[in-house]
Amino acid sequence: MALTFHPKPGMILLCDFSQGFKEPEMVKSKRPVIVLTPPMQGRDRLVTVAALSTVKPPKILPCHYQIPKNSMPQLGRFQKDDSWLKGDMIYTVGFHRLDLIMLGKRGADGKRIYFSQRLGREQMKSVYSCILHGLNLGHLGQYL
Question: Selecting from 3.40.50.10860, 2.40.320.10, 2.30.30.110, 3.40.50.620, what CATH number does the domain 12-143 have?
Fold first, then answer.
């Protein structure tokens, strides 16, 4: 089900890349992403995200950032290995592509429980630095 609210920067969501993208763009069906931007006037129902991967890059570049398992949802697929930010793979996507990560549990009220933890300020500073490197603007990282 698509999001009905603008997610906050640092949230980890699932993004459906299965339609409208072609290699070398991201084409994996559903992939975790980190939200990069707050709501912006004139960009209703759009959000900029960066892709995550559980596969360690063959060569770690300044646009990569290792995200520890304890910052990810407490689900098997996210707890097997650390995740890696792909700072050179950023996208502005519509809410229809985004989903919260269901933890597979129900609360006392019977409602589903979703992952809502966000990356902290220092982690997001590292994320934004990697994004700048992914845009070949790494020299601007000193101003974060």
Answer: 2.30.30.110
d(CA 91, CA 68): 23
The CA R_g of the chain, rounded to the nearest whole Å, is: 15
CA–CA gap between residue 102 and residue 133 (Å, rounded): 32
Identify the H or E element spanning 125. Answer: helix 121-134
DSSP state of 108: T
Answering whether pTM is above 0.85, one says: yes
Q: Residue 79 — very low, low, confident or very high, per pLDDT cuts 50/70/90?
A: confident
Give the number of other Cβ atoms within 10 Å of residue 1's Cβ.
8
